[in-house]
Amino acid sequence: MKHILAVYDVDPVYAARFAEVVNQKEKIPFEVVAFSSIERLRAFAAEHPVKLLLLGEHVPAEEKESIRAEKVILLSDNGGKPVSPSVPCVYKYQSSDAIVREVMTWYGESPGELPEVSGRGLAKVLGVYSPVGRCLKTSFALTMGKLLAQEERVLYLNLEEFSGLSVLMKEEYKSDLSDLLYFYNGGSYNSLRLSSVVHTMGELDYIPPVRYPEDLDQAGEEAIAGLIRAIAGESAYDTLVVDIGSGRRTALSVMKLCRVIYMPIREDPVSLAKLKELEQYFSQTGNGMLRERIKRLKLPYHGSFGRGDYIDQLLWGELGDYVRQLLRGSSVGG
Questions:
Q1: pLDDT tens, the chain, 334 aa long
Q2: Do residues 83 and 176 both lie within one domain?
Q3: Phi first, then psi: what are they for 309, rounded to 5°?
């Protein structure tokens, strides 16, 4: 059974909409329950354990104290500035995703008994890797992730040193993959930590990439592969799309987790020579079985786009059509 996250604000419409949106997305291991009156909340809390309570800051103090809840976080309308030094607060007039990340960050500091995750079994891991540069690898990975996310729960991870994602998304991230690797190496990773980091682009969830390339080296390939394995086994995602970077040892460790490794290629002499060396490396290191998981792809050229969202436009160009055929099982690639 999921733990209860109760929401009450003097504006009942706000609480109801927040609960509806968060429950629909199923991003956190809580059931969000909205209350239109303090009396109903008090009666509910008297009979059901409320693990986490989001409470409007304008609720009178005596009413706040009458509610039984394990942890309380205030919904602030003054920019998230602390109302009380002993009670955390989040800014209420931001996206529901941003509120969820902040709330899970607060709760994840001392979660006690972890809430149950409604997992769907072990998520399949799809890798995207190529030793060839300028081959639309990331564009392909994002397109595939967004198309898969129309039918199932998908999480996109980028393991490149410089992904360009923050520029494409026009966003500065407060937390990212670096934080999850830190928690994993310190033994404090859990589903709440994951929820505190995950962002969305449409229906596709993603973890912002590391903020500094050195973070990947410091974490080590075992931790990176271990974190991916933990997410696949302990989260509610059906599929993980992993955009694998160029680090040799990390790439090899992650590729071993992948059911399929999609490999965009080019056919100029230098690119073909790199692919040949990769196959030789697999054979020489006892990893020849990885060749059977690789699906080579000759991606279509796509022209320049207008001023709109580049990632969304990928879906409706040649690359989007190509990936749709690929996912339907048509004979594209090699």
A1: 578 999 999 898 999 999 999 998 877 889 999 999 999 999 999 999 999 999 999 888 888 888 999 999 999 987 656 666 678 899 999 999 999 999 998 887 765 665 656 556 799 999 999 999 889 999 999 999 999 999 999 999 999 999 999 999 999 999 999 999 999 999 999 989 999 999 999 999 999 999 999 999 999 999 999 999 999 998 889 999 999 998 878 999 999 999 999 999 999 999 999 999 999 999 999 999 999 999 999 999 776 565 668 888 889 889 999 999 999 986 555 5
A2: no
A3: -65, 120
Q: Is residue 242 part of a domain?
A: yes
Number of domains in the chain: 2
CB atoms within 10 A of CB 15: 25
Angle at 126 between CA 117 and CA 298, to 5 degrees: 155
Half-sphere exposure of 283 (CA within 13 A, CB side): 6
Per-residue b or e along 75-97, where b marks 16 or more CB atoms closer than 10 Å to that residue's CB: bbeeebeeeeeeebbbebeeebb
Q: Whole-angstrom Cα distance, residue 33 to residue 222?
A: 39
On whether the CB atoms of residues 137 and 185 are closer than 8 A, the answer is: no
Q: In which domain, by residue range, is 261 found?
A: 124-327
3-state secondary structure of 236: coil
